[in-house]
From TrEMBL:
It is a multi-pass membrane protein. It comes from Marinitoga aeolica. The lineage of its organism: Bacteria, Thermotogati, Thermotogota, Thermotogae, Petrotogales. This is YidE/YbjL duplication domain-containing protein. The chain crosses the membrane at residues 6-21, 28-45, 65-82, 94-114, 157-177, 204-222, 228-247, 296-314, 321-341, 353-375. Belongs to the AAE transporter (TC 2.A.81) family. Residues 8-173, 207-375 form the YidE/YbjL duplication domain. InterPro entries: AAE_transporter, YidE_YbjL. It is found in: Cell membrane.
Length: 378
């Protein structure tokens, strides 16, 4: 149980089996890998709890799996969705920006209300964890460096409930709110007139360039007066894949790639991503459960759920956004990559990624702004 590759593929294997279990019309799908990863991560780390060297090595490997899988998953869905990006932007435009700030603001207000029931700086961490935002965590740590321990504790126990809230909502909302997914797809097709799929080759040269440019964008620091933030690997690769994919062929680079190959990359990247999240979080999450941490988990789940539900209601009934695009927009507002995977799986539609891609950058900015405000008023 010291081999990180064995642990990764055990998590993927059992995650797929778990995801196939169906209760009425509900199943976990690819998200099963998160739960199998949590259990296997806890068990494998427990076996070596007295060997710090082994644990550090495993955690380092799990982090590398996490980053590589993000690149695979995000780049593939961005390239798939890119062909219809401009049509969706023309149709919904500024509504994506409004969704991003509405969801992050709702999470901020809910967190502020709940912060009166515990350590205020733990709730600063919970805010970033519930909305699964690493840039938000970085901003909080930079702004309140004297409270690093409390902020990290809140984020650690807030992250998994935040992920679960988004994943479950993507599968359950259509049943609760009586959304006919097939009708939503047909309505979207009538509104947008998507391009037909063509049999394309796969250009590894162009694919490598997409990732290189995405990583460079993700590492660039945007300075806006008193606010600075990075898009990170997720935001950078997503923007480069959407933009370059829309350009098509440029010189020797062909960014229109074979959809079947991209979908394989997408599925494998998602399974690997969810497994690695579970593997690296399993020990701390399951081994440190007590009354205090259970409270943090509960508050995080409620904060995430309120932001998701209000975001959905606002987007569906006020902004009138089609569910296929809205589901991606909600995940983008929550900056949740696992949620995006669940939304694509639940709707069986890559167009979900367009809503995610258009909302995500604004949500990152919202997280940076509201994290600073949360610390200032605390």
């Amino acid at each position: 149980m010291k081999n990180p590759y064995l642990l990764l593929f055990l998590s993927i294997f059992f995650g797929i089996l778990l995801g196939k279990i169906k209760i009425k019309n509900f199943k976990l799908g690819s998200s099963g890998a998160l739960f199998s990863g949590l259990i296997i991560g806890w068990y494998s780390t427990s076996l070596h709890s007295n060997n710090v060297e082994v644990i550090n090595k495993l955690n380092g490997e799990f982090q590398q799996f996490f980053l590589f899988s993000l690149i695979l998953f995000i780049s593939s869905i961005g390239l798939i969705a890119s062909k219809d990006l401009d049509k969706i932007i023309r149709k919904y435009g500024v509504r994506f920006l409004i969704m991003a700030f509405f969801i992050t603001f709702t999470g901020f207000i809910t967190t502020y209300i709940f912060s009166g029931f515990g350590n205020k700086y733990e709730f600063v961490g919970i805010y970033s964890g519930a909305l699964t935002s690493s840039p938000g965590l970085a901003t909080a740590l930079e702004t309140a460096s004297n409270y690093e321990k409390e902020i990290i504790s809140g984020y650690t126990f807030g992250y998994i409930p935040g992920v679960l809230a988004v994943i479950l909502s993507m599968y359950i909302f259509p049943y609760i709110f009586k959304i006919n997914i097939e009708n939503e797809k047909k309505a979207l097709m009538e509104e947008i007139h998507f391009e037909k799929d063509k049999e394309e080759k796969f250009d590894f040269l162009a694919y490598s360039l997409v990732i290189i440019i995405g990583i460079l964008i993700g590492n660039y620091t945007f300075d806006l007066n008193y606010i600075s933030f990075k898009l990170g690997i997720t935001g950078g690769v997503l923007l480069s894949s959407l933009f370059l994919g829309r350009l098509g062929k440029v010189w020797i680079f062909d960014f229109r790639m074979n959809k079947k190959i991209l979908k394989t990359f997408q599925e494998f990247g998602l399974l690997m991503f969810l497994s690695s999240v579970g593997l690296k979080s399993g020990y701390n999450t399951l081994n440190n459960l007590n009354a205090q941490t259970l409270n943090l988990i509960f508050y995080s789940f409620i904060i995430a759920l309120i932001a998701i539900i209000l975001g959905f209601i606002f987007g569906k009934y006020v902004l009138k956004i089609n569910w296929i695009i809205l589901s991606g927009s909600v995940c983008g507002g929550m900056t949740s990559t696992p949620g995006l995977g669940a939304a694509i799986d639940a709707n069986n539609s890559e167009e979900v990624a367009i809503g995610y891609g258009a909302t995500y950058p604004f949500a990152l900015l919202g997280m940076v702004i509201f994290n600073k405000i949360l610390i200032m008023i605390n």
